[in-house]
Amino acid sequence: MENHDLELGDISIIQESFQSLLDRVRNEGNINNAHQFTPSIYMAPGVLRDLSPSSFNPRVVSIGPLHRHDENVQEFEKQKATYLIKLMSRINSSLEEILKLCMHKVYASMNEIKACYVWTTPHDDAEIAEMMVMDACFILEFINQISELDEKSYSGKLLLHQNVTRDLVLLENQIPFFFLDEIFQCTILKFDPNASLTSLIYRVLTFINPFEAFIDISNISSNTHHILSLLHECYTPPDYITSHPSSSTIPSAVDLDRAGVNFKPNQRPTWLMGMEPTIRMSVLVVGDFTESVLRNLIAYEQSGQTRNYVTSYAYAMYMLVNNQEDVAKLVDSGVLVNYMGSNEEAANMINGICKEVAWVDFFYVKQWKTINMYCNGYWPKHIARMRSIYFSSPWNMIALLAGIILFALTVVQTIFTIKSAGYK
């Protein structure tokens, strides 16, 4: 009898567990299917995040739910309302009327907004609605103010603007672009009918762009996930490029230089991350935000929702740079500008940025094959060996010069000895 009661109890527990799981699957399935794509705003993979947490954490401002409760962003959180009020004051309508319209927009898109996130803490719809409207209005007014500032005013707030701009392109610090566009239409388009959201955000993208050449947004689609993915689109090549899961490598920058391969800056690249033999490449500017921008773009690519152009580029640079001498060679060649404390710091950053990264696509196989064929030729190989042995340091050069002089003196002495013997 006891066994029979236990079996009935087991059936009851199983039924409850089944119903709980079924409700969860239906609820979360409906949310995730609402927008028909996998979430695009999430915490960076732990293996990447642990290598450089500061590259993913906002310094000043939290956007969206993932860093909402971080201690360091609480002070600026109170200032968002000021930006919202300033944005609303530009419109020839009452604050209440515009806010109500914005709230209608967010509730109409609530399921789609939820589907964009991998949530780390629960939020009710009211919290999400307030967060989305506040953050969207802050972003739009902040960028609008940057566009209006003169040089004197901008320099007075330079540090704040730099850090906020950097925070706006973090993977974990985003709101859905389609909702940002809806609030843009409810606000900025009301007082500036000719405005474009991508053109407005261009100022942010230009500042954070790690290349010396300007980014081109003329062919950029507004159908993107968020501001970081919009930046990623700027690094997409204009024409389709075949990728290969290749394990091929090339010598470092110094070794390539010894073999006679020249590095030249490409002032008008068709693709910002393109590389062509001799090697012609866009000028990379290594500064305070370069690591953060590249790490976030790489983490975004790791989701599998886009092609790994930035990851492939980072691996290509990793192959070219072994140490500070390689950085110095790239700087001397004009293809790298180093604003970090030393060439060693820049080398460490380039060497470390691909650790724990899944390498799937490589877009430089053709270029690497051409370079390797050249370097493995008879003359380049032997010239490179001679330069590495005799011209790798000033002391080696002095020793070589001394050897040449000694050899020449020996030859002269031998000639005179022979001539003297002939006269006798």
What does this 3D model show about the protein?
With 424 residues, the chain is mostly helical. The chain is built from 21 helices and five strands. A hairpin with a 3-residue loop joins β2 (275-276) and β3 (280-281). α5 packs antiparallel against α10. The longest helix has 32 residues, at 2-33. The model is unreliable at 378-386 (pLDDT under 50).
Write the layout of secondary structure elements.
Elements (H helix, E strand, L loop, with lengths): L1 H32 L12 H4 L24 H4 L2 H10 L5 H14 L1 H6 L9 H24 L2 H6 L1 H10 L9 H10 L1 H4 L5 H12 L18 H7 L19 H6 L5 E2 L9 E2 L3 E2 L2 E3 L3 H12 L7 H12 L3 H10 L2 E3 L4 H10 L12 H11 L2 H13 L3 H30 L1
Parallel strand pairs: 1-3, 4-5
Antiparallel strand pairs: 2-3
Largest sheet geometry: 3 strands, mixed
Distance between the termini: 132 Å
Q: Report the total helices.
A: 21
Residue ranges: pLDDT <50 for 5 or more in a row?
378-386
Structural class: mainly alpha
Indicate the percent of residues in helices: 55-70%
| Strand adjacency order, main sheet | 1-3-2
Radius of gyration: 30 Å
Fraction in beta strands:
under 5%
Summarize model confidence as the mean pLDDT: 84
Shape annotation: elongated
DSSP summary, beta strand count: 5
- Helix-strand sequence: HHHHHHHHHHHHHHEEEEHHHEHHHH
Task: Describe the structure using short key phrases.
single chain; 424 residues; three-stranded mixed sheet; elongated
